[in-house]
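User: I'm putting together notes for a lab meeting next week and I want to include a structural view of one of the chains we've been expressing. I don't have a solved structure, so I'd like a prediction I can at least talk through. The sequence is below, exactly as it appears in our construct file.
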Amino acid sequence: ALYDIELTYWTTKANESEVVQNVEGSDGAINRFIYWQGSSLDQDINPDELRKLILSPQWETDLAGATRVNITKPEYTELPRTTVAKFSGNLKVDHKVKD
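Assistant: Thanks for the context. Below is the predicted structure for the 99-residue chain, given as structure tokens.
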């Protein structure tokens, strides 16, 4: 089962560079979600996990998350027990600054 990622998130000007790193960086929310989503069988495609990572990054202390996120893809999808979800490589991420 392949899934795309398409989302827009919002940040404040003060936190913009940190939040972009926490969401889109190599150790950020999107890559952590892709790893989590593909890490085991019997794991439905769950955009709420991605939402949680973007809004409340907690893999280190004092990380700033986005103030809001709109996830278009992936949609919640139940998968058979023997299936692992794989990221398709289609990534469309946009961020907006709202003071």
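A couple of points you could mention at the meeting. The chain has a mean pLDDT of 96. The chain has three helices and three strands.

User: Perfect, that's what I needed.
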